[in-house]
Design a protein that fits this description.
Layout: H1 19-41, H2 45-48, H3 59-74, H4 84-90, H5 106-125, H6 133-158, E1 175-178, E2 181-185, E3 200-204, E4 207-210, H7 216-224, H8 236-244, H9 267-276, H10 284-290, E5 333-339, E6 364-367, E7 384-386, E8 395-396, E9 400-401
Parallel strand pairs: 5-8
Antiparallel strand pairs: 1-4, 2-3, 4-9, 5-6, 6-7
Helix pairs in contact: 1-6, 3-4, 3-5, 3-6, 8-9
The protein binds N,N,N-trimethyl-histidine and fe (iii) ion.
Length: about 400
């Protein structure tokens, strides 16, 4: 969903001169690439150029686009590496989405990916080459983001659309109290993206946050109570969308997984459930405050495609928050009530199409990452964003309430 791949950059330069630093970066690039290639090795060749969902490009386009973006930012868009035909195939402002079924075959795409990587690793190993760690880390996170998109498109292609019955759990939701106070929002370190800057403080009131994202069994209670048919639970836009698309259950609904988080819900469905439960969505700032003190670790959540699917809530006590909330990192992204907007001191980097274009008053912020999110591409301050009707992504939600009403 990049707006424009026209170059800009020149913000937070961080020259990487030390050998050790360059070797560490090369190791991270290899590890990330190994996971990306392992993901595409699980994709049937026939699916590589197929458009699984009209709103998204074929899986293979995301692989080619990863290499195109790497060459654009790390090899100055060298035409010897990315000839015009490949630029047209894999640039965001190249082929229209529906035409992307015409991208090169898997073998040709994989060859392009390997040629770009060979050239970038040669540049990284060249002591005479100036390496700006900020843009190299941006490209690494960009790869992880498109790999996650490929993951949910693959899951959509493989999913059984059957509406597995999940026995409802209508017990009241379990909340933890989150104290109010001065919250630290944002991040200024080298890997921080433009929308996480600048770090700032914000006064927040105390609130209650559900201990974990809404499970399938809890969501089944909403469905059993006519949640999808009760007009009073939906916003005007949400109700019109729900009716127009005959929505009747989450998109990534899974059989036999009552205690897994509901996944594949839009912000509209999340809000309807919250109204049904006498609650609301947390703001992104409340979410970030609830995760204060937490850092992303491999054993702190269902992350990095390790489990290749959601897991029951509460299985990663290492990632439990100071207030006792679980699954803040990984498993499913969590919708917030916040609209995607710039922080004080925001400066578009490395190009306006990454964040600024989406400060349109419509896109909503999601936090926390999903099971397909790579740990290095996630932080407490990381902001994801999608239009409120989006449900193809591995998104769920948890409820919040104004006051500590336990
Ligand atoms: C942050 C995941 C919404 O995929 O559109 C990738 C990330 N931006 N290439 C997206 C992104 C440009 C973006 N999301
Ligand atoms: Fe992109």
């Amino acid at each position: 969903m990049d707006a424009r791949s026209g170059k800009s950059a020149d913000a937070p330069a961080a020259a990487l001169s030390s050998d050790a630093g360059r070797r560490a970066l090369a190791a991270d690039m290899r590890a990330c690439r190994a996971a990306t290639l392992a993901l595409f090795a699980r994709v049937e060749p026939a699916l590589f150029r197929a458009q699984v969902d009209p709103n998204y490009s074929p899986l293979g386009w995301h692989l080619g686009h990863i290499a195109f973006t790497e060459a654009l930012w790390l090899l100055d868009g060298d035409a010897a590496v990315t000839p015009p035909a490949l630029a047209r195939a894999f640039a965001v402002d190249g082929l229209a989405k529906a035409e992307r079924v015409g991208i090169p075959e898997p073998a040709a795409a994989l060859d392009y990916v390997a040629r770009v990587r060979q050239a970038t690793l040669i540049r990284l190993a060249d002591p005479a080459a100036s390496i700006d760690a900020a843009i190299w880390r941006f490209v690494l996170q960009h790869e992880a983001q498109h790999a996650e998109t490929a993951s949910f498109l693959h899951a959509l292609a493989m999913r059984d659309a059957g509406g597995a019955a999940i026995s409802p759990d209508a017990q009241p939701l379990d909340y933890v109290g989150v104290p109010g106070g001065l919250a630290t929002i944002g991040h200024d370190a080298i890997e921080a993206l433009d929308n996480e800057r600048e770090m700032h403080s914000m006064e927040l009131g105390a609130f209650a946050l559900a201990r974990h994202p809404v499970t399938q069994a809890q969501f089944a209670a909403f469905m059993a109570d006519g949640g999808y048919r009760r007009r009073d639970l939906w916003s005007g836009e949400g109700w019109a969308w729900c009716r127009a698309n005959a929505i009747e259950r989450p998109l990534h609904w899974r059989a036999g997984a009552p205690d897994h988080p509901a996944a594949g819900v839009s912000a509209h469905e999340a809000e309807a459930f919250c109204r049904w439960a006498g609650a609301r969505l947390p703001t992104e700032f409340e979410w970030e405050h609830a995760a204060r003190g937490l850092v992303v670790t491999a054993d702190g959540g269902n992350l990095g495609g390790v489990h290749l699917a959601t897991t029951p809530v509460g299985r990663f006590p290492v990632g439990r928050s100071a207030d006792g909330a679980d699954d803040l990192f990984g498993n499913v992204w969590e919708w917030t009530s916040s609209t995607f907007a710039p922080y004080p001191g925001f400066r578009a980097w490395p190009y306006e199409g990454y964040s600024q274009t989406w400060f349109d008053g419509r896109h909503r912020v999601l936090r926390g990452g999903s099971w397909a999110t790579r740990s290095f591409a996630l932080r407490r301050s990381f902001r994801n964003w999608y239009a409120p009707e989006t449900r193809q992504i591995f998104a769920g939600f948890r409820c919040a309430r104004d006051q500590d009403v336990r």
